[in-house]
Amino acid sequence: MPLQIIAANITKMKVDAIVNAANNSLLGGGGVDGDIHKAAGPQLLEECRKLNGCKTGQAKITKGYNLPAKYIIHTVGPRWMGGIVGEKEALVSCYRESLKLAVEYNCESIAFPLISSGVYGYPKDKALEVAVKTAEEFLRTHDLAVYIVIFDRKAYRIAGSLYDAIETYLDESEIVEEAPRLSNLPPLKISKKLLNATVAEKCCKYESADSGLEELVSYIDESFTEMLLRKIDEKGITDAECYHLANIDRRLFYKIRKDKNYRPSKQTAIAFAIALKLPLDEAKELLTKAGFALSPSQVFDRIIEFFIINGKYDIYEINTALFAFDQPLLGA
What we know:
Blueprint: E1 3-7, E2 17-22, H1 31-40, H2 42-49, E3 59-63, E4 71-76, H3 87-104, E5 109-112, H4 124-139, E6 145-150, H5 160-172, H6 192-196, H7 199-204, H8 206-218, H9 224-235, H10 239-245, H11 250-258, H12 266-275, H13 280-289, H14 299-309, H15 315-324
Parallel strand pairs: 1-6, 2-4, 2-5, 5-6
Antiparallel strand pairs: 3-4
Helix pairs in contact: 3-4, 9-13, 10-12, 12-13
């Protein structure tokens, strides 16, 4: 199941489990920890007293009490000391152990805060990279909906070098408004016979106009589903590899597979192009099969172009960049 990055209040998340970025005592604190204890109610503190604390990098579980979530998984992240005392390994362990507990308790969905990125000082871009990579690795072998919840979007930044490179690309050419489109459908392909006929001949003779329309309508190009399945075969990957790489839910993938005329959303179509590592021309072709195009006037579309042109096909890296620029994410 997919991984999503969202801007929200984790105490409001309607998931099976939320993760609390706790301290070693598990008795509450500031930031996310304090918010969760306050929202869950005093019974949470009573249960936490019985857990005898928690070591850094480990996780323990309690009931959710007054929260929408059934469970709270408490994990203790590392304090940032410049990255030289095993902080990354400890943070990876926080996410991994929390995910294991979620599976053990039959959770189908889990929401994480950005662990250690508050008063513990872990750089937000590095903290998000750890969160995304660890969750992505776990999801290769487990069906679980994972949310990474960013409370303050304004405080969030991706790695400076990537952010600057995308901004430079967006500024390379002025984004201009396109002429209005009557439809988002791709252009129809017309036979040479029709092209050789003059406009006057087709407009002035009802009989030949009807004949031309019949021929035009009878031409049906390869559908989105047909091209998608063909490309999966050409790339030599399995269905499971494809929908995992696309960050697409398994059930949605098989819904598409069974319907050759399925019309996906634009984000879903692009997600499959990324999963298949299609060059820009083929990505655009797949997109047209779904009735869409990449527009030079849209920030979202130009960010997608940036990653494809630079041969960067990690959908989770792309989604972190899209999130930073306040754009919709791929897949999910």
